[in-house]
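User:
Care to share a sequence and structure tokens?

Assistant:
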Amino acid sequence: MNRGAVLAAAIDDAPVCVFVADQEMRYVAVNRYACDLLGYDEQELLQLRVSDIASYEEAPEEYSQMVAQAYIHGRSRLRCKDGEHVWLSYAAGQVDIDGQRLYVSIGRAEFEG
């Protein structure tokens, strides 16, 4: 088995949200679970920025903190396409892929009950 292909498939089908964004907060990749949870298709999410989804005042500042420190973890309130909100516990950090600095966030939705 090709390690890269197995890992890519596992991430895309994982039961957690995976978001990859650049320094300008533009999404460059998302997995299927993130799309399903938020109600967007992949192309719709890739047209958005982190600040379009993270629906709380401190989100841009937290993103800047992650860029400066290369790692952050916490809780985020995300706005779904239908206007509803979901809370996500996440860990996010810097990765360099093909010479490009990107930020990967992996989150687990918090459901009541």
